[in-house]
Write a structure and sequence with these properties.
Layout lengths: L5 H13 L2 H4 L7 H8 L3 H13 L3 E3 L4 E3 L1 H4 L10 H7 L2 H7 L2 H7 L4 H5 L3 H7 L1 H22 L10 E5 L5 H9 L4 E6 L4 H10 L6 E5 L9 E7 L7 H14 E12 L8 H13 L6 H10 L2 E8 L4 E8 L1
Helix pairs in contact: 1-6, 3-4, 6-11, 8-15, 10-11
Protein name: Methyltransferase
Keywords: Methyltransferase, S-adenosyl-L-methionine, Transferase
InterPro entries: COMT-like (IPR016461), COMT_C (IPR001077), COMT_dimerisation (IPR012967), SAM-dependent_MTases_sf (IPR029063), WH-like_DNA-bd_sf (IPR036388), WH_DNA-bd_sf (IPR036390)
């Protein structure tokens, strides 16, 4: 039953985000009627929803109405590791229409976004900027703990410019800039992601050190000393991944290297990795990869692995240089 009602739980989290429960309860308990009035929601339905949230640990009963919990707190927009955007994005119709076709993806071995959305996933996001922006923000929040761990292990000695390839809002590049004052960064992504990258850089006082560039990593990648590929290769087939890596190899300055941050999976993997693998199959016809599979991609692109450092499980930082 826990598996079967999983969609109810995910949509409860999405509704909690939509009603800003974490924000309303941040300063103390409130009644259902107060929250309903603030949100323009039906009072009786709001009370029923809060009762449901109490049953799953998002809120607790208080002397006056309801109080937030530590679980709800991560859905606050200002939480240090906020999952607000991720909850909204992962439970949105865009992804759920695709994931409803997981049986078809398993039978065919192919992505289902064209059938569900009428076009490939990233084309859909480009054609629907609001949904593209939400997805970019979701990936930023999902990346936060991985980035925090990855910047600890990346050696930038001798580097002047990092390029965040497909970097969305540039969170990875910005974290490196904060840690290393001598660096400059370029974020390469589709046009819908660039306002978010520029706003994020300005908000962290790094607007003068980060440049956001619209482009296509299948065509060309800006030159740099360190090229970051975070959660990129798992979106694409092996042949497409090789094309991306070749363009990155060609963009490396002498002595530069490519830094790949991805899930590492194996035949007995547990936790999120095998589930993410199936999500990638349905969404993009792609996959999570083993270290051997990454080595094969690198070799096909004229690259060799020089390091693979585990960070937040199941993620690793893989470094590669040209042969």
């Amino acid at each position: 039953m826990g598996f079967i009602i999983g969609p109810w739980l995910a949509q409860a989290a999405r509704a909690a985000v939509d009603l800003s429960l974490a924000e309303h309860l941040a300063d103390g308990p409130r009644t259902a009627a107060e929250i309903a009035e603030a949100e323009g929601a039906d009072p009786a339905a709001t009370a029923r929803f809060l009762r449901a949230c109490a049953s799953i640990g998002l809120v607790t009963y208080a002397e006056k109405g309801f109080a937030g919990t530590e679980v709800l707190a991560v859905l606050h927009r200002d939480a240090p590791m906020s999952l607000r955007d991720l909850a909204a994005s992962q439970s949105s119709p865009v992804l759920w229409r695709t994931w409803a076709r997981i049986p078809e993806a398993i039978r065919s071995g192919e992505a289902q976004t064209a059938q569900a959305l009428g076009m490939p996933f990233f084309d859909y996001l480009a054609a629907h900027p609001d949904e593209g922006a939400l997805f970019g923000a979701a990936m930023t929040s999902m990346s936060a703990p991985v980035i925090q761990a990855a910047v600890e292990v990346i050696d930038v000695a001798g580097a002047g410019t990092v390029v965040d390839v497909g970097g969305a809002h540039g969170s990875f590049a910005l974290a490196l800039l904060e840690r290393h004052p001598g660096l400059r960064a370029i974020v390469l992504d589709l046009p819908h992601a660039l306002p978010g990258a520029r706003a994020a850089a300005a908000g962290r006082g790094l607007g003068d050190r980060l440049t956001a560039v619209a482009g296509d990593f299948f065509a060309e990648v800006p030159a740099g000393d360190i090229l970051l590929l975070k959660f990129i290769l798992h979106d694409w087939s092996d042949d497409e991944g090789v094309r991306i890596l070749v363009n990155c190899r060609d963009a490396l300055r002498p002595g530069g290297r490519i830094v790949i941050t991805e899930i590492l999976i194996d035949d007995h993997a547990a936790g999120i990795a095998p589930l993410m693998d199936i999500a990638m199959l349905a969404t993009a016809g792609s996959r999570e990869r083993t270290l051997t599979e990454f080595d094969d991609l690198l070799a096909r692109a004229g690259l060799r692995r020089v390091a693979a450092t585990p960070v937040t499980p199941p993620y690793a930082v893989i470094e590669a240089v040209p042969y």
